[in-house]
TrEMBL record, chains A, B:
It catalyses: Release of any N-terminal amino acid, including proline, that is linked to proline, even from a dipeptide or tripeptide. InterPro entries: Creatin/AminoP/Spt16_N, Creatinase/aminopeptidase-like, Creatinase_N, Pept_M24, Pept_M24B, Peptidase_M24_C, X-Pro_aminopeptidase_P. This is Xaa-Pro aminopeptidase 1. It comes from Oryzias melastigma. Its main location: cytoplasm.
């Protein structure tokens, strides 16, 4: 992988930073967050500004360009990748290491006195703006909103914003009508005496209206805003998308059943002026809910006395607890996904010895096999398919120039998932198609012990996911090992593969408590730079547990794996497993065989079925 | 225990809330935090205002009195105790339960429009003020500083503020001179370009100057403030205390060795005006460090552009990492403490069957035995000595009216500790002097498993203590049990038995990472209301660990128990312990026998030695 040449681009950007066409006074630094106006994690090509300017295309990172410097902050998943994709103009700031300065500390250390730091107010979240603005002011600098995005100024061939066709999600998949969701949301608003709610997160809007789009690759969402009042619903979206009669019918655009369920539609771009108009007409005690991670620009439209910022919106919370229809859909999606993966692994086993399978072709094969499954829509994220040292790059995506051939001598890691109309999947398996080394097996076994410790954990109702993070690390820690990423994220149902407000990570304290019906991933790993990478990931459903006692009637929870793909026994040092861990593996494999076996049988996939049966033999 | 009758007091307080002698306009609510002007956890009798008005004397709690209501917020340790100590005028707000409103939410729900809520600005911490003020403003109310403390107004027989004799801590105990501590602190200030540091926490000031006092029971501190500049040291203290020639010599008050080590002394009360004078003379870029938990009153003296609030001061951080002299002192203190406890338990075993030992007499005996040890100064907190249902009251202190007799039929819990000149101790043991029930043993064993899981944990350098909290709970959770308090707190060295900035708790995310040399407690428990209580507590030292691997050269840490008192084998269901847990118990008991046995031998305490040897037989 050769880095992007950025010298000329940075020169142009620095010119723009001084150009009075864009800034009233020159700015000494410009912040380029990775995100769009909806603070999406995955973004459309037209929004990949941080990648455009730096070459680094990982999912998380913030660039800051000053007159002298260009620096990129990213986390442990991307240290290697970022250092390979960026040229010498860039300094990599490794977040999470003690010696790495925060963005604000770094800015304060390099800026001349009384500097102005610019940022696009649509791209920066309100809470980040506040934090950064405060830190800069305290050092005599100021954060300024630059209305024209300066990357767009130098990005001459920037792609158009997508406007894909909208897909209606029927009740058989959504479980609850959008009208009922609106009613529930208004109930939450009434409870908290809130008059208006501004929805800016694309997955929340898609979930609310039981609609899906394809504006952003991997995430079935569409560009839109919604402003919900107690008697009104405003939807901001490219109006061309609303011509389909079925869609108009679904949204009751032409004949609303009830006045308060009547959706007024507006062009996507008019959200700012419309919100201004609403805010101008607010009563003195009226309150507006907006996520504190919404854009600074929209947030500041709401005058402070009316603004009630919330870390997680009621839509985010409601969406996280899957309804029975969604749970059933997620289960079906995972069975289909397991069928594709069993087939893949059986195929790999046969093909790898021929020396013809590469990281890319294996990923392609996985996609091909998934696409044969019913209601397949697309992948849920770019497949991570890495062999040997490439697997140590935590979010590695194979490129032609990095593409390695799978052999019987190296560990292979594949982290992949798909969108089906009934649900979203995300699974990682680490396999060896020859004989793994004792060390590889040892590390794999520690990771597996961590995976099991989380998956089998029983914990009280009300427990936040971050309290479970250390369970995933204990076995690694005991041997002096660790991994520099969280253990799990929320997973949407035919929605974003990463969603809040729950997760399992040492990095946050603000996650919402786990509840029955929530779905998260459980994915500890171990990565040895330049050598190999290991991760074992299942998507798991939070379910009630019934332990022996019930302290204070709080009730207990545990996890049920939705992912049903065998975990390679060959990679385990079974003597390092406790009897309970061995029992867990055997019970898990029994269920894989039973559930996925039946589906393989039904689909007549004999080779995969044989593979499944062999790979799910009990261990002793 | 009968509750305090508070009707008349509340009537007087409500009068004061309307009296223009104290408030320019009537206030509709008055907040009574539990604390003093230094935000101490343990407070002097003259500062026990929340106890005076409510009767509730636990270590944590905040009272709010409105025209109609009186409510008390406290945490799970005190639910029982508070409900017993308060009369019907009070509503108990059980913090940590989902249905319990926060103080601000409750105020907003009960106050009439545009209410004023008063508080003593010396008692409320700056961060609490900010939080409360913001929440109230957003609902149309306001938080106002009431200069006269309204509890003092109605507290006619309020005690005088103590001014005990100061004790010099020689280098043989302190390890580092106060001058070297000042130099190190100034180094930290220079590093961060800070010009002034305002120290308000009593233990930080005591630690800095290698002085101890006795102004607050159990905590060897004295009322003082310090303002440190790069060339000046101001000490605010009752000047009468500085007449002792040895003390004047220790502080070099009459002949400072260097100008920048010259201490200027001021009356305790003049800190406000002196800080005002300093702040008036600040240069435009001058910065002042003050803890964000310091009083709102002192904090607001520093104009915002100059104020740099910090969650933990450099003194707090430096004090937490014990130097080799302090570690050695803590080890010695714990050996002496173990001698006293072995003697106590041997005595209890003989005396309990006679029916003559009560919770109070057992606690008194423990104190008597500790006081026989060299350099004993006093207890480090009120002894918790509870049998049967009383032990389920987490911070129970026996009173004549609650005092129960120890028998061979009930579990006995004693949580106690002492101040010695060389160190501070804090230990809990739960014992049965007859035959415990299977259920009591089962619960005890889960608690012990949690204790061992923390004590034996290996974790990377840089890990925050809160990440270890779940280790202590896993075995309890698995059976549906839990405890509603944190797992550990920092422990001072001949200082406060509770200190920051580290700890082991699910409740905080802002603790500082654990470092070798830090000392914390490890104290999971289980409490069955109305029946019994269990806790197993050791004080443990953070020490480097050497596991097999060393990922990213981060290094690993683990704990070494400083407490060396046998854990009663009779209470264990050894069949529930893993082999590793049994090995841990045996190794711990071997060390108790070796180290404490030698000291018992030296002190000629034969009976206790026999008890120790019997209680430390290996388990299989």
């Amino acid at each position: 992988m050769s880095p992007k040449i950025t010298g000329e681009l940075l020169r142009l950007l620095r010119n723009a930073m001084r150009n009075c066409k864009y800034v009233s006074e020159p700015i000494q630094a410009y912040i380029i967050p990775s995100g769009d106006a909806h603070q999406s994690e995955y973004i459309a090509p037209c929004d990949c500004r941080r990648e455009f300017i730096s070459g680094f295309n990982g999912s998380a990172g913030t660039a800051i360009v000053t007159e002298q410097h260009a620096a990129m902050w990213t986390d442990g998943r991307y240290f290697l990748q970022a250092s390979q994709q960026m040229d010498n103009n860039w300094t990599l700031m490794k977040m999470g290491l003690k010696e790495t300065p925060s963005q604000e500390d770094w800015l304060i250390s390099v800026l001349p006195e009384n500097s102005k730091v610019g940022v696009d107010p649509w791209i920066i979240a309100a809470d980040q703006w506040k934090h950064m603005s405060k830190a800069l002011s305290s050092a005599g600098h100021s954060l300024v909103a630059v209305q024209d995005n300066l990357i767009d100024v130098v990005w001459t061939d920037r792609p158009e914003r997508a406007s894909s066709q909208l897909r209606i999600l029927g009740l058989e998949h959504a479980g609850v009508s959008w009208q009922d969701k609106v009613t529930a949301l208004r109930g939450k608003m009434a409870e908290r005496k809130i008059n208006w709610f501004v929805a800016t997160a694309l997955d929340e809007i898609a979930w609310l209206f039981n609609l899906r789009g394809a504006d952003i690759e991997y995430n079935p969402v569409f560009f839109a805003y919604t402003i919900l009042g107690m008697n009104s619903i405003r939807l901001f979206v490219d109006l061309k998308r609303l011509s389909d009669p079925a869609l108009r019918d679904h949204l009751q655009l032409d004949s609303p059943s009830k006045a308060d369920m009547s959706i007024q539609t507006f062009p996507y771009e008019s959200v700012y002026t419309e919100l201004q108009a609403i805010c101008a007409a607010l009563g003195p005690k009226d309150k507006v809910w907006i996520c504190d991670k919404a854009s600074c620009c929209l947030t500041q439209v709401i005058a402070k006395p009316h603004r009630t910022p919330i870390p997680y919106t009621p839509l985010c919370l409601a969406k996280a607890v899957k309804n029975p229809t969604e749970i059933q859909g997620m289960k079906l999606a995972h069975i289909k996904d397991a069928v594709a993966l069993c087939e893949l692994f059986a195929w790999l086993e046969k093909e790898i010895p021929k020396g013809t399978v590469t990281e890319i072709s294996a990923a392609d094969k996985a996609e091909e096999l998934r696409s044969q499954q019913k209601d397949f829509v697309g992948l849920s994220f770019p497949t991570i398919s890495g062999v040997g040292p490439n697997a140590a790059i935590i979010h590695y995506g194979p490129l032609p120039e990095t593409n390695r051939t799978l052999t019987v001598n190296e560990v292979y890691l594949i982290d992949s998932g798909a969108q089906y109309i009934d649900g979203t999947t995300d699974v990682t398996r680490t396999m060896h198609f020859g004989t793994p080394s004792a060390y590889e097996k040892e590390c794999f076994t520690y990771v597996l012990k961590g995976h099991i410790a989380v998956s089998a954990a029983i914990f009280p109702n009300g427990t936040k996911g971050h309290l479970l993070d250390s369970f995933a690390r204990a076995a690694l820690w005991e041997s002096g090992l660790d991994y520099l990423h969280g253990t799990g994220h929320g997973v949407g149902c035919f929605l974003n593969v990463h969603e809040g407000p729950c997760g399992i990570s040492y990095k946050t304290f603000a996650d919402e408590p786990l509840e029955a019906g929530m779905i998260v991933s459980d994915e500890p790993g171990y990565y040895e730079e330049g050598s190999f990478g290991i991760r074992v990931e299942n998507v798991v459903l939070v379910v009630p547990a019934k332990p022996k006692y019930n302290y204070r009637n709080r009730g207990s929870l545990t996890f049920e794996p939705l992912t049903l793909v065998p975990i390679q026994v060959k990679m385990m040092s079974t003597e390092l497993l406790t009897q309970r861990e061995r029992d867990w593996v055997n019970e898990y494999h029994r269920k894989c065989r039973e559930v996925v076996g039946a589906e393989l049988e039904r689909q007549g996939r004999k080779q995969a079925l044989e593979w499944l049966i062999r790979e799910t033999q009990p261990i002793v």
